[in-house]
Amino acid sequence: MDTPKPKVTPKDFFLWLGAMVALYISAVSFILLIHTFIDIWFPDELMRYGDAYSGPIRFAIASLIVMFPLFVWLLRMVHQDVRKESLKKDLWVRRWLVFITLFIAGFVMAIDVIILINTYLQGDLSVRFGLKALVVLAVLIGIFWYFLEELRGTWERKPGLSTAFGGATLLLVIASVASSFFIIGSPETARLLKLDEQKVMDLQNIQWQVVNHWQQKGKLPTNLAELQDPISGFVAPIDPQSGLDYGYRITTPPRSFELCADFNLEVKGGAPVKTATRPVPPVSVHTGADNWDHGIGQTCFERTIDPELYPVLPKTR
Fold first, then answer.
1. Mean pLDDT for the chain?
2. What is the per-residue DSSP string for 42-109?
3. pTM over 0.85
C-alpha cells in the first residue's frame, strides 16, 4: 500500500516561507553587523570615517532584533507540527526550501573560499578582508550544517538538542546586537554626532561666505549679519541645538578671523575619539577634513585668508 502524500496547507506553506525569509534576512544582517565591528577594529586608513549608524547598519540591527526571534519561533512551530504528524517531514515546500537553502549556502561558501584563496595568492590578503571572509564562511557553514541535519530529521528526533542549538544561536545574536551599542556607540551618540556634523557644515558655509565677502569688498564682515544677501537668499545659519548664532570675530585685521561653535563630541581626523582635546591650529582657508577637528564644548577655528588663492576681485563699472 502506497504511503499517502501529505498535503501542503496554507499554514505549512507560509510557516516555511516565513521562516526562510527571516533566516536569509537575519544571516545577511548578522554578517553586515560583524563586518562593521571588523571595520572599527581594523580601520582602513584609505577610507574616511562614515556614519556608524548609516542606513545599512540601522537596518541590520533592527532586522536582527525582529527577524531572528521570528525565525526561531516559526521553525519551532514547524518542528512541533512534524512531531505531531511525521508525514509533514515530506512536504514538498519543506524539502524544496531546505534544498534551495543548502544549495545557496554551499554555492556561496565555494565562492567565498575561491575569493579568499585568490586574494591570498595575489598577496592582497589583509587581516580585515580575511576576517570578513571567515565570518561569511562561518555563518554559511552553520546554516548548511543546520539544514543538513534538518533533512536527516535530527531536530525532530532530538527536540532538546534543537532547543539548545536555537537558544545558543539566539544568545549569540543578542550578544552581537548588545555589543553594537558598546562598539559602534549608542543611538544617542549617533544623534549628537549628526548635530556636530551639521554645525561643521554650517561653519563651512559661513566660512565661504566670509571669503566671498572679502573677495567682493576687500574687507572682512564685522559680524555675521553683514553676510545676509537678499539676492542669493543667504542667511547665516544658527546652531541647530541651541538656536543661538555661531561665534564669529575678526582676530587679526585685515585677513584673519575665527568661527566658534559648541560641540558634543571630540572629533580628530574626521572621526570621533575619546582622547583629550587639542587646540585647533590656525590655517589658511582651504578644503580638508583635518581643518575641522574639534573638542567637546566651545571650539574656535582660526582662519587666515590667503590673498594669492583668494584675491580681492577688481570692481567693475
1. 84
2. S--TTS----TT-HHHHHHHHHHHHHHHHHHHHHHHHHHHHHH-GGGGG-HHHHHHHHHHHHHHHHHH
3. no
